[in-house]
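User: Can you predict the 3D structure for this chain?
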Amino acid sequence: MAVKLFPVLLVICLTKCSQGKHRLRFLTFCQKNLTVDGQNDIEFDGDQLLYTNPFTHQPVQRLPEFAQEWTPDPGLAEDSYVNLGTCHYNIPRSIAGFKSPPENIASPTSLIHPKQEIEIGVPNTLICFVKDFHPPTLTIIWTRNEEPVDQMVVSQTQYYSNQDFTFHTVSYLKFTPQVNDIYSCSVGHISLQEPLTKFWEVKDTDQQLVETAVCVCGVILGLIGVVTGLWFIVKANKSCQA
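Assistant: Here is the predicted structure, written as structure tokens:
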């Protein structure tokens, strides 16, 4: 799929350090032909403190414990509006100034895991963590036993910026574990010739205990074998010396 997207244009990226121990980063990004996909972030030591809604430009705090101690500046909404407008204004001029540079593309990686320890029949959440991709436009599709899941039980975060200006996002699937169910998370991105798919299978708790017990027994038997071998070696050496 040929998609022409100019690399994310960063108009604000300020880093403030206190004695080299902490980092406060202000980030604004936008994309060509995607006027509603812009975003303003404020991050502290890699954790997002807040972002501004691309429609209302109102700040949305992401860290509850921090929100109790700090109220965003009322002027952030106006600053967000101006920053995003400046970002979109500069994109065609930057393209012309840099003579239509090639798009920066990075392929995503993904990881799927449950939010809580699995109990058969007890509601839980599957997490699909997708990271290290650029540009920040992708699709995430969940399946259960090769059938698409109801989108009402799926949610996804916004795109978060990494320190190297690639992005990451998280998709959540609410589900109730049933033995032998197989779930998949498929990621589609401009960098991929085919979707990146990871699978996760619901296993019976008793079966997991048996597998763990077998593994532990194998390790113990292996250690016994090593100790026994060493004992025979020591005994043989003493016999030779005698």
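The first strand starts at residue 12 and ends at 17. The first helix runs from residue 64 to 67.
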